[in-house]
Specification:
GO terms for molecular function: potassium:proton antiporter activity; sodium:proton antiporter activity. This protein is mostly helical. It is built from 14 helices and two strands. 46% of the residues are buried.
């Protein structure tokens, strides 16, 4: 047993009780260090659970846990900011899609290709995830820009309700297909699955349940500390004169750290299928669960909500999906594909700072 993986999650949560006087200046180093530690602990415990329940349920555990808490964080910030945070859900969800589809996938393909030359994954499962993601992004981030029933890139109450229900239905169907009806589409290819050096021995039931509890504690710590650091992040963004959308990017990066580290470690261990399951599962959950929660909060509490993307972001989204379709076409990957995705990710970050 690694003592640090058991000690850091409760410590991260305990730091959330620090008074505001302890949260400024050099003392920001303490929650920042705790945040990084909680991320590493979350990845460790997610892998323990994954080894116990097997693929693809193992990757679903981390994606689901992170997204539920991410949605709670977004709603909390909307309630605190009121109308000033109308664009935060859109910016955070769009950032999550770009980070996952270009940053995470790009790093996994590049690192895995560099170490193993060529890697394989199941094209059937990856294509199903991409198709669902394209539909979800179009319904929630693209169409609000072009509808005419409400002013601006927004939905009417009925349109928002339809988008929320459609998002939840697509995510539920995805989970059913991934875990029950077509589970074999999300398992590693035969030669990788049969390699005895790829997977660790399954832990005991007691160890797995302990890791489930500590995973949830670690994720609460990650999101709570990210929220605690958000005032400093907003101040830094304003001081740098950067667009407000950068705040959504930073929040998405912090929340997605556990999944990013887990996916990269899987790719380096020649388990690219696990990386793909994590990537598409996280992106789909980020929309399929967050949009319904945000829609309910907006309709129930009367909070303004702006979902439509700008032309620049629409172009980046279309480019991402076109390149992703090429990447998934053969079921094999190499580092060139990773380099292309990372260049698109770099363009996304650069254009967010210099729109």
């Amino acid at each position: 047993m690694n003592l640090w993986t058991h000690a850091l999650p409760p410590l991260a949560v305990a730091l959330l009780a620090l008074p505001p006087a302890w949260q400024g200046g050099a003392m920001l180093l303490l929650p920042t260090a705790a945040l990084m530690g909680a991320v590493l602990a979350a990845v460790h415990h997610a892998e323990v659970v994954a080894h116990r329940v097997g693929e693809p349920l193992g990757t679903l555990v981390l994606a689901l846990a992170v997204t539920v808490i991410e949605a709670a964080l977004i709603v909390t910030m909307m309630l605190a900011g009121g109308g000033a945070e109308a664009e935060l859900p859109r910016d955070t969800i769009f950032s999550a899609v770009m980070i996952i589809c270009n940053g995470v996938v790009g790093m996994c393909l590049l690192a895995g290709g560099w170490r193993h030359h060529e890697q394989q994954f199941r094209i059937e499962g990856a294509n199903a995830g991409l198709a669902a993601l394209i539909a979800l992004c179009t319904l929630t981030l693209v169409l609000p820009t072009f509808t005419t029933s409400s002013a601006g890139p927004t939905y009417t109450a009925s349109q928002l309700g339809f988008a929320a229900v459609a998002s939840l239905v697509l995510w539920l169907v995805w989970v059913f297909v991934q875990t029950i009806s077509h589970r074999d589409y999300f398992l590693p290819p035969g030669e990788v699955r049969d390699d005895p050096h790829v997977h660790a021995e399954p832990p005991s039931a007691r160890a797995a349940w302990t890791s489930v509890a500590l995973l949830l504690v670690a994720l609460v710590g990650v999101v709570g500390l990210a929220k605690q650091l958000s005032p400093a992040i907003e101040s830094a963004v304003r001081a740098a004169g950067a667009p407000r959308a950068v705040i959504g990017i930073v929040i998405a990066m912090l929340v997605l750290l556990p999944e990013t580290v887990a996916a990269l470690r899987a790719a380096l261990a020649n388990r690219l299928q696990t990386s793909m399951n994590l990537a598409f599962g996280s992106a789909l959950a980020s929309i399929g669960l967050t949009i319904p929660v945000v829609a309910v909060a907006s309709l129930w509490l009367g909070l303004p909500l702006t979902l439509g993307l700008s032309p620049k972001d629409l172009a980046l989204l279309v480019l991402t999906f076109l390149v992703s379709a090429v990447t998934l076409a053969s079921g094999r990957s190499h580092l060139m594909l990773g380099a292309v995705h990372l260049v698109i990710f770099a363009a996304f970050l650069f254009l967010a700072l210099v729109p």
